[in-house]
Amino acid sequence: MDSRLTEPRDAIRRRRECEGCRQRFTTYERAEVDPVTVLKRGGKRERFDRQKLLRGLSRAANKRPVSEAQLESLADAIGARVRSMGPEADAEVIGELALRGLVELDPVSGVMFASVYRNFNDLGELEAELRRIQSEPVAGTGQLALDRAGDVPSEPNTSIGLSRRGQRRGPKTDARSTRSNHA
Would you give per-residue pLDDT tens digits along the chain (183 residues)? Predict the structure, then answer.
């Protein structure tokens, strides 16, 4: 009936109809690619599993105003990003991509995901994560939250908006001095 590329352009979505019962269904065709190994926190390695990622996203968004199609799209985007990182990816980066993607869809779902992913020990840690989520800029349309695979803003030594020397980027100017005088 209908065929089109999915949003991250890594699969073909086909809408079909059963000739016997006339029921419609959707299939996805993806090219087999080299497997990506995920490096877990404890040093364990496992193969990247999109379905496992999707289950985690679905659990966090359970009973929230997030559609299955939105979660599928997010899982596709994260999967494409992970594959672009090379043969190995840190679980922490994947988790941060998932967290930020969920926050973009529904902030409460993002907090639900963070509560499991971050494994908070007390309410202070949860409050700090909420402040972090609220203070970070939202990705633009068609962008995944992290622009560079190595940056994980939740790491204590990472400074968004600061240069490598810890200084604000760009010249310090007074707003009044930058305006030109017009007649």
Answer: 666 666 556 678 888 889 999 999 888 887 767 789 999 988 899 999 999 999 999 999 999 999 999 999 999 899 989 988 889 999 999 999 999 999 999 999 998 998 888 888 899 998 998 888 888 766 655 555 554 334 444 444 444 444 444 444 444 444 444 444 444
Which contiguous run of DSSP H or E holds residue 39? strand 37-39
Q: Round to whole Å and give the CA distance between 104 and 34.
A: 29
Q: Where are the alpha helices (DSSP H) in 39-179?
A: 50-60, 68-84, 91-105, 107-117, 123-135, 175-178
Answer yes or no: are the C-beta atoms of 183 and 124 closer than 8 Å.
Answer: no
Closest CA to 74 of 101, 44, 35: 101
